[in-house]
Amino acid sequence: MSELYTKPIPAVALPDWELLRKVPIDEHDDALVPVSLSQNIRVYPAYYKMRVVGAIPECFVRSRVFEKLIQAARTLPAGLNLVVLDGWRPIAVQQYLFDTLTNLIQRDQPSLDEMQRIAIARTLVSPASDDRNNPSPHLTGGSVDVTLCDDEGRLIDMGTAFDEASPLSWSAALEEVQGDTVVAAKQHRRVLYNAMLSAGFSNLPSEWWHYDFGNQLWSYYRDEPAAIYGVTSPDSIERLWQQQLSLTCV
Length: 250
Hints:
Muramoyl-pentapeptide Carboxypeptidase, domain 2; 9 helices
């Protein structure tokens, strides 16, 4: 059996958020590109399909992330396909997700203070930030949420649903679970994890679906000296024309 199936996912801690804030960003200005144009990757923009206000019907990632995704997709065993659920994310969507989760935590656990609620929420959703020195990971175009499907497009069992608020959503959680019911899901997580890391990504340990390349999380977990992606956004026609007119006037 391939090492993709047999190599366990290591138990890793969440980042030290204060250290993460201090990771320098040496912006490389790679453009955002639409993942849906690839014939090697399936795209299902999950938040748009769930009708989250402000969510977009495309998954954009930085151009180098796009190439890494293709690399990961090509290493998957026959019958398994990479599915991208989310990439670059508008800050309004990030704010909605974070506010919704923290409000639910407050309702469910009213004795917690604000910092405790934020700490719990951060295992699933980052606070919304367009701070150029510490942006939300998905706002950089370097974060991507992924899963697997079969050749017919059926989503593969990964042990929990995408974005499920469960301790079993931690990437390595199934490594500690015994029994026949989790064998397939455990192997599928390993395949995804090992394929993505071999392509150069890092994984957020509390989310089996979340991977990073080029941003501060990637720098932190891959021990890189600096991140190469900060805040970005898809080109608008207004910004494109502004750039062209500026060049014309020089």
